[in-house]
Design brief:
The protein folds into 3 domains: 2-167, no CATH class; 183-244; 248-376, 2-Layer Sandwich (Heat Shock Protein 90), CATH 3.30.565.10. It has 14 helices and 5 strands. The chain has helices at residues 2-24, 26-33, 37-63, 71-84, 86-89, 97-107, 110-131, 136-210, 215-244, 248-261, 277-297, 325-330, 334-345, 369-376, and strands at 265-270, 302-310, 313-320, 349-354, 360-367.
Length: 377
């Protein structure tokens, strides 16, 4: 869980910083286009240094950790570099104060960050009049442009943080669902066995007490105890069988709903109308496990679930386009391994692995009931 969270923070930070670096790179590019290579080099050095510091700020914000005790110093560093370079880089540098406003929004609490944003936007007006044009309209436009661009830049970082939190919430919900299912199972077994074990204990104690005085009655009590134990064993089997039984139709609907809840699109294609109970149970578990893995271990944008009749049996395909590296390396967890064994016992097969196009798929094939019955004869 911790490793997955760290990996998400890394790749989200990389994406945000890469996009930010591309935008910041327009300033030195402007110097190159006008043939001023000296100023272009100075802009690259200054912006490159700020980008390194900005990357740390973004990573901490996305991870939801504190920005540290030196937030004010970091902000002053941005302000000093940006505004200190204005006399040397001139009008081409006029939009870079948005970096200062963005840093303020990310480093400080909302009310203080909002104050920084307003101050930077207001300062852009006289700065434009001095460095760009003494006309008021362009100055107002650039002030508004800096304000909007700063909000958008900070909003991108906030969005990346929400993405990370949403994915962690999905994993937590899936884990909680499994834990709740186990607790329900434990509760059912507790209710079932509590009274039965108490009866067995009382009858055993009674049989021991009667062993010397009335052997015939003691034997009857022992026989009654055995009957209770046999009945309890059957009840446990019934509970476990009920828990193992799944409706494949309900699981398919639940899988589509769960996957689309994450923002991905899920296509469901059904090529058959009826499935026997045993095959449906097995396929229901495979669908549930595959959908859970997509939610917990992928960044899928599109998923496909196909169920049709192939080679006299039932074929299931669950494919997504967002496999992470660690998921592709595992090629299915312990859940799929257990289902693979179950499919093999039924005379079928189950495979899971990467598609070679950044995706991951689970394939299962189970023979028809008639074929399995003929094999057992």
């Amino acid at each position: 869980m911790a490793q997955e969270s760290e990996a998400q923070v890394r790749w989200l930070t990389t994406g945000v910083v890469a996009a930010t670096g591309a935008l910041w790179g327009l300033t030195p590019l402007a110097f190159v286009l006008v043939g001023d290579l000296g100023r272009a080099l100075l802009a690259v050095v200054l912006l490159g240094g700020l980008l390194v510091v900005y990357a740390r700020i973004v990573a901490r914000h996305i991870a939801g950790t504190s920005q540290g005790p030196h937030r004010a110093r970091t902000f002053l560093l941005f302000a000093a570099v940006v505004y200190g370079a204005v006399p040397f880089l001139g009008s081409v540098w006029i939009y870079t104060p948005l970096i200062v406003a963005t840093a303020g929004l990310l480093l400080f609490r909302f009310r203080y960050g909002l104050g920084v944003l307003i101050a930077v936007a207001a300062a852009e007006y006289p700065l434009t009049l001095v460095e760009w044009s003494p006309v008021a309209v362009p100055a107002v436009q650039k002030s508004a442009g800096v304000l909007v661009a700063s909000v958008v830049a900070a909003g991108i970082v906030h969005y990346a943080r929400f993405v990370r939190e949403l994915r962690e919430l999905r994993v937590a919900l899936a884990t909680t669902a499994v834990d709740q299912d186990r607790l329900r199972m434990a509760g059912e077994l507790h209710d079932l066995l509590g009274q039965t074990l108490a009866s067995i204990t009382l009858k055993t104690e009674l049989a021991l007490a009667l062993a010397g005085a009335d052997r015939k009655r003691a034997a009857a009590e022992v026989e009654a105890t055995i009957a209770i134990a046999v009945e309890a064993r059957q009840e446990i089997r019934d509970v476990v069988a009920a828990r193992r039984s799944l409706d494949v139709g309900a699981e398919l609907s639940a899988a589509v709903a769960l996957i689309e809840l994450t923002g991905a699109r899920c296509d469901l294609r059904l090529g058959l109308e009826k499935i026997d109970e045993e095959t449906g149970d097995a396929l229901g578990w495979i669908v549930r496990e595959a959908a859970t893995n997509i939610v917990r271990h992928s960044d899928a944008r599109h998923c496909l679930i196909e169920l049709d009749e192939v080679d006299g049996g039932v074929r299931l395909l669950v494919r997504n386009d967002g496999a992470r590296r660690e998921t592709a390396a595992r090629r299915g967890g312990s859940g799929l391994a257990g289902l693979r064994q179950r499919a093999a016992k039924m005379g079928g097969s189950l495979s899971a692995g990467g598609t070679g196009e950044g995706g991951f798929e689970v394939r299962a094939w189970l023979p028809a009931v008639d074929d399995r019955e003929s094999e057992h004869r």
